[in-house]
Design goal:
single chain; mainly alpha; 66% helix
């Protein structure tokens, strides 16, 4: 067996290959970090240009209608819950 020698690494361009690998890995990590950093800003800009649309599953836009709470319905639900918890 031969002894370990840095000359074998130098002859096979080991240092150059390892430096190139380190540069490639850190470049990829920096680009991923920048993408994650800028993603919320990009999405906020896209939200202004392309606002969210709600669909009913058939490709038609669904209109959302807000109704006032029916006080009688709320009172009936509260009464039923109270009766159920009190065991009557």
């Amino acid at each position: 067996m031969s002894k370990f020698s840095y000359q074998h690494i130098i002859d096979g361009q080991g240092f150059e290959i390892s430096i190139a690998g380190i540069i490639i890995v850190f470049t990829a990590l920096i680009s991923i970090s920048l993408f994650i950093y800028f993603l919320p800003k990009i999405l906020n800009l896209l939200d202004k240009v392309l606002p969210e649309m709600s669909h009913n599953g058939h490709g038609h836009q669904q209109k959302t209608v807000k109704k006032k709470d029916d006080q009688g319905t709320i009172a009936a639900i509260a009464y039923a819950l109270h009766q159920g918890q009190s065991g009557k």
